[in-house]
Amino acid sequence: MQIELYINHQQVLLTVQPDDFLVDTLRKQGLFSVRRGCDTACCGLCTVWLDGRPTLACSTLSFRAQGRHITTIEGLRHEAEGFARFMAAEGADQCGYCSPGFILTVLAMKRELANPGEADIIHYLTGNLCRCTGYQGQLRAVKKYLGVAECNM
Amino acid sequence: MFTLLNIAQPDTQQEAYRLLTAKKSNVILGGCAWLRLGSQTIHTGVDLSKLGLNFIKEYDTYFEIGAMTSLRDIETSVALNRWFSGILAKSVQSIIGVQFRNVATVGASVFARYGFSDFLTALLALDTEIELYQGGRLTLAAFVDMPRNKDLLVKVIIHKTSRTAAYLALRNSQSDFPVLTVAVSRLDGAWKIAVGARPTRAKLAAQAAVLLAGAGRDVPPDCLRQAAELAAEELPFGANMRASAAYRRLLCQTLVQRGLTEVTACR
Ligand SMILES: Cc1cc2nc3c(=O)[nH]c(=O)nc-3n(C[C@H](O)[C@H](O)[C@H](O)COP(=O)(O)OP(=O)(O)OC[C@H]3O[C@@H](n4cnc5c(N)ncnc54)[C@H](O)[C@@H]3O)c2cc1C
Ligand code: FES
Ligand code: FES
């Protein structure tokens, strides 16, 4: 079947099979930042935005993207780099495999939550797994990035 | 991984139901988060996107939640969470993560009656009805005990009674499946105690509720403990990889007692 959608603000026409999932459809388009970590809906590595909402690409059928807007980290390069610097400064990035999904979730959180506290941040980021690091460095990076740092560290 | 041969996007509920029942292997597609983990071959997946079932509507005396509403919408609905001590948000917020809850739907979570379902447990402790396309309207409590058949869940209806409620669950680790789920509520003297992940479907502890009903407005702590013990006695528990039946029974007593205490503390 054919679907018409927007990927990073560009209109594209794609042919997909009924059981194609977004993670594969997007990677076929060369968007290799979209990763598959677990393929069981547990790790958050495959996160993309669907109409601005962070969504698991491994669990979303591609045909459902008909007429909708998909954003990957390629479409938020400048903002993503801004946050990546905070991650690097905290030593919270290692192999980087989980970074695109994680960063997309952080950027979505920044838009969705007003003045989040530490518990709100942890809650929003639960479901994003990283096999390399613990999560303290990531949390420090997020807090500094959002400007809610220091007070309870 | 499942195989899906065709997609149908019906314009009416009638057509959706016709398609669903046209072939044994036809199914309704919710968010597909669960379906995709199976290995079945589906002839036609019935997509409900065109039926306008993505809504949370507030009326004077009840809420209506459409089948295609996401669990994240439940979590963030300000209107919904002004009611029932906010237990609906509480019940869904430990299900994996935000991205997952943006995918998983209300219709599937209720219709599938998963034993481990957090949301089903919370709904069961409220005054909840569901509307099925074929089966019509019925109480959730009646539906939970019904055998499986093919139908289309259209919406969930929750009556705005002034129930005070509490939701508790134990997980071995954050965002894992629950080991036990408990939802407790009180409307005047009438109590509901729902326990899920036993590991089977959530069930109401009827005898414990009756015991509490006789205890009046200010239930003495002793009576709360007795009711919690009774709930753990009257409900069946089983074992799975997460916990033994004996552990679940002990846990049930503790969580129910905490839930009851929390509700009695609400003024
Ligand atoms: C890794 C993982 C962890 C999970 N952990 C938890 C947890 O801790 N707590 C918890 O409560 N849940 C948990 N879940 C379950 C989750 O809540 C369900 O997967 C979700 O509710 C299913 O939603 P869905 O819309 O993706 O369903 P789908 O996969 O689309 O559908 C599931 C079933 O429901 C049917 N269906 C869908 N919509 C309708 C409808 N309107 N009418 C009739 N039938 C319908 C489908 O045909 C299918 O049989 C977990 C799931 C996964 C994959
Ligand atoms: S690959 Fe999608 S959640 Fe892990
Ligand atoms: S940095 Fe390697 S998986 Fe997260």
| CATH class designation of the largest domain in chain B | Alpha Beta
Query: How much strand content do the residues of chain B show?
Result: 25-35%
Output the structural class of chain A.
alpha+beta
Structural class of chain B: alpha+beta
- The name of the CATH architecture of the largest domain in chain B is 2-Layer Sandwich
Mean pLDDT value of chain A:
95
What gap, in angstroms, lies between the N and C termini of chain B?
A: 50 Å
CATH superfamily of the largest domain in chain A: Beta-grasp domain
Rounded to an integer in angstroms, the radius of gyration calculated over CA atoms of chain A is 16 Å
Let me know the number of strands of chain A. Answer: 5
What distance separates the N and C termini of chain A? Answer: 52 Å
Give the neighbour order of strands across the main sheet of chain A: 2-1-5-3-4
Give the fraction of residues assigned to helices of chain A. 25-40%
Mean pLDDT of chain B: 96
Low-confidence stretches of chain B: none
Quaternary status: heterodimer
CATH topology of the largest domain in chain B: Uridine Diphospho-n-acetylenolpyruvylglucosamine Reductase, domain 3
